[in-house]
């Protein structure tokens, strides 16, 4: 793959105007990069097992919705190697792991609500023995009616939560009086997180009714709370630790709770260490995915394509319990506008209850699902009017001084979408390539090309204001080395690297002097999940606060000791300059220790200005917005439906990047992952509600061969208008919206078979089968 990566900064390069010795704004390797590639990085399953460790597995329901009439576990208990079998009756505390609503049992009690729901836990001498035994239970069911699709949930008015509604202006009148109207339905499927490291928890009992749980989780504090509730204990009896995850993508935000709780229950009951590591098939069958959405929409627009009014009804396939569906639906509503001003709009969202896995967080957290339908609609408007979709987009973009208030009432003060899209359109040669695609299609009867440019505006902050806080500890040792602990979790995204850079920069030392330790609930309490793209923003600021306190103490000490003004003390390049003299950082640290200066500090940060009224669906839910845009060119085979991404041009707004190399990697990864969601990753349940795509053999994530041969990624030159950490912007979730351009380019190619006169019927994912079906339907429509 010939990947062209721009805006990379090599060692020693820095942003213009950056001070000498800066440690931020530089491309530095991931702090565990060498450990990753050498296989030495320790994940939860790699921790040396303690004496007497047992292994657990789960017995799963084979019915989508049924009463359990009889559950005979004696064959399981008699199986070789089995030590114990636990059911709902053996849970000492609360049989629940729901993060918001208490509707998510650890083990089914009387009723099962999806195929794959855990009914009992087997603890055995080995992982293999536990898994084999878990399949021996004899269960009698009384089947109950099952709801399997969002459409069925909508028809039955079945929700896991009350529906959401946001209305601004008079959309009914605006649509009724509009010269043109667009109405229809659309669907996007869910997506499996497919983290390389599966769900795993390892629990060891401690003296005095305590337990230590190593868990692959994005939210150690929530695991601590859930475990304490399940055991009937206090939080201080539970220690949860996570050094790193082999990927999370939202799937380990809330849903690691079930496995952490059951491992802890078994360990404390048997007074032996217990490891619960899921097989990949079981992980697929038990855990929730990205929410699939069903949409009904109507949009009114004028002769130029300006949107006058919009109405949207979304039904999420929530699964059997609420989990985080309410927040996902809220974020979908708040991202339907994407980068466009909507004066009159009416939005409804129902978290539909279905008898499937309880869907959960996934990178973007409803934002991609909310914005996708808007981007599809914009292209449909352009085709109806015979215009270039880019012109329609520009006409509808948010303004800077006017037309700059979102449907939920937040004024946009950092809008750069006009400048960013102009730069990308020019650098990608969009206009000339669009004309070239038309000419190619006119001369090619079988192979057809498609081209699309799509923008994004993505809000950064948690929906719940209280979650926007973080803490950190910074310890400076007598030799000048520094240890940092913060509440965020490392899942490969480079959070620890960025936090270390922030601390190194604040104290004026080289990055090699700073080490970040495992996330641990006994060190930082009441932490928020590493989610919503806030990891670096929150934990970076908290660590900066702690380091700044230490620096201020050192500055005061140095000024007094060397009789100079505090303003004359400088920290850079591992050296402390004090007036006209200088000394190594470590030498000043040792002197400060001998003078009894505190060399450690705690730091705290709370995002300012965010607020949200869930009753009116209005407020200021986002601290700032990240922007971006992508141009994708595809080629499809109209005889088979197969397609290929020929080229992708990406321009993404990461603010003043702390580590451009890491951010480029996040943009690339998000683009390919989002492309997989929209094109290759198809979740399929049979008529009985059983997930049939539950392994790599049946569920296709993108591979290297799916990446474009020409992949041009650049970071937009921008500085966050808000006081984020070093004026950077979050880059975890926003770029997942960039591959909307791939999906729209495929739709553009399909539309070309009828000379762009009709709108294709093509939902997501646009698999070859779906593309072929859309082509067949379009040709049939044209023939009539």
Structure write-up:
It is built from 19 helices and 30 strands. It is globular. The longest helix has 27 residues, at 535-561. Strand 15 (307-319), helix 9 (325-333) and strand 16 (345-353) form a beta-alpha-beta unit. Helix 6 (220-231) crosses helix 7 and helix 18 (740-751) runs parallel beside helix 19 (768-783). With 784 residues, the chain is an alpha+beta fold. Strands 4-6-2-13-10-11-12-21 form an 8-stranded mixed beta sheet.
Topology at a glance:
Layout: E1 2-5, H1 33-38, E2 54-60, E3 66-72, H2 74-77, E4 82-86, E5 111-112, E6 118-124, H3 127-134, E7 138-143, H4 150-156, E8 164-168, H5 171-177, E9 180-188, E10 200-206, E11 210-215, H6 220-231, E12 238-242, H7 257-270, E13 274-277, H8 280-286, E14 293-301, E15 307-319, H9 325-333, E16 345-353, H10 367-385, H11 389-396, H12 417-427, H13 430-443, E17 447-460, E18 469-476, E19 482-486, H14 495-507, E20 514-516, E21 519-520, H15 535-561, E22 569-572, E23 575-578, E24 581-584, H16 585-594, E25 600-606, E26 611-613, E27 618-620, E28 624-637, E29 643-652, H17 660-679, E30 710-715, H18 740-751, H19 768-783
Parallel strand pairs: 1-30, 2-13, 11-12, 15-16, 19-20, 29-30
Antiparallel strand pairs: 2-6, 3-5, 3-7, 4-6, 8-16, 9-14, 10-11, 10-13, 12-21, 14-15, 17-28, 18-19, 18-25, 22-23, 23-24, 26-27, 28-29
């Amino acid at each position: 793959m010939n990947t062209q990566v721009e805006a990379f900064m090599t060692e020693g390069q820095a942003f213009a105007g950056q001070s000498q010795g800066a440690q931020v704004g530089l491309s530095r390797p991931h702090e565990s990069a060498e450990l990753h590639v050498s296989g030495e990085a320790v994940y939860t399953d790699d921790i040396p097992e303690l004496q007497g460790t047992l292994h657990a597995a789960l017995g799963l329901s084979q019915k989508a919705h049924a009463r359990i009439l009889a559950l005979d576990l004696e064959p399981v208990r008699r199986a070789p190697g089995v030590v114990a079998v636990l059911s709902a009756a053996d849970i000492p505390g609360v049989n629940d792991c729901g993060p918001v609503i208490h509707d998510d049992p650890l083990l089914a009690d009387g009723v099962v609500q999806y195929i794959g729901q855990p009914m009992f836990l087997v603890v055995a001498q080995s992982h293999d023995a536990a898994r084999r035994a878990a399949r021996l239970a004899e269960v009698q069911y009384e089947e109950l009616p099952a709801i399997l699709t969002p459409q069925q949930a909508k028809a039955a008015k079945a929700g896991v939560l009350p529906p959401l509604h946001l209305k601004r202006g008079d959309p009914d009148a605006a649509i009724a009086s509009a010269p043109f109207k667009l109405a229809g339905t659309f669907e996007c499927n869910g997506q499996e997180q497919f983290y390389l490291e599966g769900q795993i928890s390892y629990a060891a009992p401690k003296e005095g009714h305590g337990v230590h749980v190593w868990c692959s989780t994005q939210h150690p504090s929530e695991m601590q709370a859930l475990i304490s509730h399940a055991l009937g204990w206090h939080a201080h009896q539970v220690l949860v630790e996570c050094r790193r995850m082999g990927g999370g993508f939202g799937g380990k935000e809330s849903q690691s709770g079930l496995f952490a709780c059951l491992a802890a229950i078994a360990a404390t009951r048997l007074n032996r260490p217990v490891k619960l590591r899921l097989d990949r098939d079981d992980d697929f069958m038990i855990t929730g995915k990205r929410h699939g959405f069903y949409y009904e929409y109507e949009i009114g627009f004028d002769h130029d394509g300006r949107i006058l009014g919009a109405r949207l009804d979304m039904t999420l396939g929530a699964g059997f319990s609420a989990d985080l569906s309410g927040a996902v639906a809220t974020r979908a509503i708040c991202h339907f506008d994407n980068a466009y001003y909507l004066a009159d709009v009416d939005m409804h969202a129902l978290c539909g209850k279905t008898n499937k896995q309880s869907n959960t967080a996934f990178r973007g957290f409803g934002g991609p699902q909310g914005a996708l339908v808007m981007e599809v609609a914009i292209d449909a408007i352009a085709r109806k009017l015979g215009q270039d979709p880019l012109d329609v987009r520009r006409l509808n973009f948010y303004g800077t001084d006017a037309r700059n208030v979102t449907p939920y009432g937040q004024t946009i003060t950092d809008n750069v979408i006009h400048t960013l899209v102009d730069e990308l359109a020019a650098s990608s040669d969009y206009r000339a390539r669009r004309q070239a695609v038309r000419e190619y299609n006119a001369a090619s009867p079988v192979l057809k090309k498609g081209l699309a440019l799509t923008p994004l505006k993505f809000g950064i902050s948690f929906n719940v204001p209280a979650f926007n806080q973080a803490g950190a500890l910074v310890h400076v040792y007598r030799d000048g080395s520094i240890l940092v602990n913060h509440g965020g979790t490392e899942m490969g995204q480079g959070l620890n690297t960025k936090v270390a850079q922030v601390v190194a920069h604040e104290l004026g030392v080289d990055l090699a002097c700073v080490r970040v330790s495992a996330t641990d609930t006994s060190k930082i309490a009441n932490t928020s999940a590493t989610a919503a793209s806030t990891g670096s923003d929150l934990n970076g600021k908290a660590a900066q606060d702690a380091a700044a306190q230490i620096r201020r103490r050192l500055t005061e000490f140095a000024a007094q000791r060397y009789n100079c003004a505090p303003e004359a003390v400088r920290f850079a390049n591992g050296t402390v300059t004090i007036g006209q003299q200088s000394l190594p950082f470590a030498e000043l640290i040792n002197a400060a220790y001998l003078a009894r200066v505190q060399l450690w500090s705690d730091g705290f940060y709370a995002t300012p200005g965010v607020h949200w009224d869930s009753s009116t669906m209005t407020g200021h839910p986002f601290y700032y917005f990240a922007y971006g845009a992508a141009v994708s060119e595809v080629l499809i085979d109209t005889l088979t439906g197969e397609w290929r991404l020929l080229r992708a041009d990406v321009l993404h707004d990461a603010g003043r990047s702390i580590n451009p190399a890491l951010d480029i990697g996040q943009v690339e990864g998000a683009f390919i992952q989002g492309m997989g969601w929209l094109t290759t990753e198809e979740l399929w349940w049979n008529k009985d509600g059983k997930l049939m795509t539950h392994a790599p053999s049946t569920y296709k994530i993108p591979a290297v061969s799916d990446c474009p041969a020409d992949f041009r990624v650049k970071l937009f030159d921008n500085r966050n208008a808000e006081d984020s950490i070093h004026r950077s912007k979050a880059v975890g979730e926003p770029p997942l919206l960039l591959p909307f351009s791939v999906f729209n380019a495929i739709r553009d190619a399909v539309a070309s078979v009828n000379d762009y006169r009709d709108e294709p019927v093509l939902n997501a994912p646009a698999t070859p089968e779906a593309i072929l079906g859309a082509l067949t339907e379009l040709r049939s429509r044209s023939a009539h």
